[in-house]
Amino acid sequence: MEMYRRTFAEISIENLLSNWQQIKNVAGDDRFICPMVKANAYGHGDVQTALALETVEADTVGVCLIEEGLLLRSAGVKSQILVFRGFDRHGAEKILEYQMTPVVSTWEQIQALESVADEPVKIHLKFNTGMNRLGFNIDQTEKLFTYFKNSKKLKLKALLTHFAQGEDAIFNDGFSAKQTKLFKEVVDYFKPLNTYAHLLNSGGIASQAYLKKENKTDGFLFQEKWGFRPGLALYGYQPHARFNEMNLKPVMTLKSVVNNIRTVTTGETVSYGCSWQAQRDSKIAIVPIGYADGFHRLISNKGHALFADKIVPVVGRICMDFLMLDVTDVIQGDDINKWIEEEVILFGYDDKLKLFPADDAAETSHTIVWETLTSVGERVPRHFKGLKKP
Ligand SMILES: Cc1ncc(COP(=O)(O)O)c(C=O)c1O
Fold it and tell me: pLDDT exceeding 70 applies to what percent of the chain?
């Protein structure tokens, strides 16, 4: 598509695949891994991410919505697609028609599948171990076991649960340990049905990487070959600052260019609400990206960007379509016109591979990197670097 505004998100397929390899290294052989490509692959482009993962023999991807799975199928994604959100009868029909795999969390979903399935259907069964969002409560274990032992139509392939606080999985007395203990009871109960089990999100995976490195492999994370469901780690971020065991590389670089530069004199203000006042004569770069692109307004007067190899502050309120940077110290006595169209990195890598991670944008907007990435708006084109044509 023609781009008249040079604001875009560059997606490095090379980094995505490198992160995948890092996760595989922690997993070792024969472990189920379901890379999560829900929410447009955390803003990175779900079709391209899923297709790229197929080139390295990832055979499963996870989505939240049936709609997301349908989009992947229509784009030619052949991997197993796990649908996590749940479904009604109509949704069950679509899941089966497009050869997706349902994650089942209620008896109603079981009934819906039973009523539409003409032939045996593979399913994954979710248990609630403390997240209290989706999944069967543990007290249903026996009843579910009996049901699946006898069901002709529904073939139970895997059991799963979800960590509420994966980053504490390095401790044997944390919430993750408690959840895993409960889950293990279920897994043991289902052993006669030969199912596998998955539960580790990025926090859990990073914990496992850390413990492996420390040679502390006698805890609950190593009791079974728990399957992995990486989201954030795949896109290059550590779920917690404490974890840097995997050499993850951010996949998205959010870029723009300087639209124009204004000189403001001491005492003048910048942007709506006059919230920033120049304490000296200043050079202000106007950058065509704003909160309508997902660069949150809370970042106003607090966040930063990478400009000409330097970290510079966002000044004044972020507008719908623009933000302003104080570049006084960078451009000094230069002719300001020389800097028009200069690249600005809101987060990610510059062309010298200097990294300015999305954590700054997340912290200054009082949120988490997950939200910062998924917030990058639809009107920001994604440019895929290194995507092989199928
Ligand atoms: C069921 C499920 N599994 C795995 C993940 C991946 O989590 P993370 O991005 O922390 O790796 C998510 C994300 O929210 C999820 O909902």
Answer: 99
Looking at the structure, tell me whether residues 63 and 147 fall in a common domain: yes
Ligand 1 binding pocket includes 84 (Cβ within 6 Å): yes
Residue 53 domain-assigned?
Answer: yes
162 lines ligand 1 (CB under 6 A): yes
- Under the banding of pLDDT at 50, 70 and 90, the label for residue 3 is confident
Q: Domain range for residue 178?
A: 31-235
> Which atom of ligand 1 has the smallest separation from the CA of 134?
1
User: Is 86 close to ligand 1, i.e. is its CB under 6 Å away?
Assistant: no
With a 6 Å cutoff on the Cβ, whether 229 touches ligand 1 is: yes
pLDDT of residue 2: 74
CA atoms within 13 A on the CB side of 51: 17
Residue 265 within a domain: yes
In a domain, 7, yes or no: no
Average pLDDT over residues 46-59: 96
Q: Would residue 10 count as lying in a domain?
A: no
Listed in order, strand segments (DSSP E) in the chain are 8-12, 60-63, 80-83, 101-104, 121-128, 136-137, 154-160, 196-200, 227-228, 252-257, 260-264, 269-270, 276-277, 282-287, 304-307, 310-313, 323-326, 343-349, 355-356, 382-385
pLDDT at residue number 244:
81
Last residue of one domain, picked from the residues 202, 235, 268:
235
pTM: 0.96
Mean pLDDT within 298-305: 98
Q: Does the pLDDT value for residue 260 go beyond 90?
A: yes
For ligand 1, say whether the CB of 294 is within 6 Å of any of its atoms. Answer: no
Instruction: Judge if 190 and 77 occupy the same domain.
Output: yes
Taking CA atoms only, the protein residue closest to ligand 1 atom 2 is 162
Atom of ligand 1 nearest to the CA of 205: 11
